[in-house]
Amino acid sequence: MDVHTLIWSFLIIFMLHNFEEIIIIERWFSKKYPEVRERIPPFAIHELEKHKKMTAIQFSIVVYILSIVASALIVVTVITEQYFLFFGLNIIFALNIFTHPLQSLLLKCYVPGLWTTLLLIIPYNIIVHIAFYQHGLLNLAISMKALFVIILFIPVFIVSHMIGEKLAFRLES
């Protein structure tokens, strides 16, 4: 499969996954979270308590900001053929392969994002890694440069949540 087609396909997978989370997040926190709270490890409760009031609007703003950044990285990747940019972005997104299924197993229930992780993200990542390997694009140099993208994405993620919280408060009041 063409590597550029796989790279552009990232945006579709990314949005479908986030749509699942946007649609479910408020209802899950109001209905399911109180039932499963006692199964959550103490270190995670503090973080979840901060996000339990997250609305679909707030999460949509976060996704919007992250989508802009992801789209920019993908455009630059395709134009410059600096594949480490996409690979770093994809590694961050691929963390869903572990987080959603592990959360679901720990809590013994469905968590937002689980279905698209199992049905889209895992197969997509298998295909991406095979294609990158076959095209000689999966190597130590690209992997090391991808770490740089991952590190730079962390503040983007944090700032997107801060903006989402402030902007959602204004939109909802």
Low-pLDDT regions: none
As a whole number of angstroms, the C-alpha radius of gyration is 17 Å
Extended strand count: 0
Largest sheet: none
Termini Cα gap: 48 Å
Mean pLDDT metric: 91
Residue share in β-strands: under 5%
Bin the helical content. over 70%
Coarse morphology: globular
Give the count of helical stretches: 8
Q: What is the H/E string?
A: HHHHHHHH
Structural class by helix and strand composition:
mainly alpha
Describe this entry's structure for a reader.
The chain crosses the membrane at residues 6-29, 56-77, 83-102, 114-134, 140-163. This is HXXEE domain-containing protein. InterPro entries: HXXEE. It is a single chain. The chain is mostly helical. Helix content is 84%, strand content 0%. It has eight helices and no strands. The longest helix has 33 residues, at 140-172. The termini are far apart. The mean pLDDT is 91.
Layout of helices and strands:
Elements: H1 3-31, H2 33-36, H3 42-51, H4 56-80, H5 83-94, H6 96-107, H7 114-134, H8 140-172
Helix pairs in contact: 1-4, 1-7, 4-5, 4-8, 5-8, 6-7
InterPro entries: HXXEE
Transmembrane segments: 6-29, 56-77, 83-102, 114-134, 140-163
Pfam family, one: HXXEE
Summarize it:
The protein is globular, with a radius of gyration of 17 Å. It has 8 helices and no strands.
